[in-house]
Amino acid sequence: MTVLDKNASLQEVRDYFSHDLFAAEACGCRIMEAAPQHAVCEFDIQPTHLNAQGGVMGGALFTLADYAMAVASNIGEEPSVSVSSSIEFMSAAKGKKLIATASCDKSGRALAFYTVLIQDELGTNVAKMTTVSYRKAH
Length: 138
Known about the structure:
This protein is of the alpha+beta class. It is 22% helix and 40% strand. It contains three helices and six strands; from the N terminus they run ααββαββββ. It has helices at 10-17, 21-26, 58-73; strands at 30-35, 38-44, 80-89, 97-107, 111-120, 125-135. A six-stranded antiparallel sheet has the order 1-2-4-5-6-3.
């Protein structure tokens, strides 16, 4: 597996994650910021993201949060995968776009702990995910 350099450009990160077809193509997730232990990803809310009641489906929110965590945890590190995640749905989105900001709370040799906050473009807190990622220790 290729390791993304800690100084990778935004375009290099986007190219690397373009192979994540479910998030990038099926869900329309876009990478807006990317750095070691930090990422911002977003998507425009589409009819395919909605549940039967007209709200954004929990799985779409989870995908956006998971994608942001994947970007943040894979820059300048050995390839990482999520091993545990918990998501709290806080409020219905009021806007037309969702933005996930992933930040590392603690990074160890093999495990890293992240919080991902999802907001709409109006600043509404929509969901929060906490997740643990695992990477092969050297």
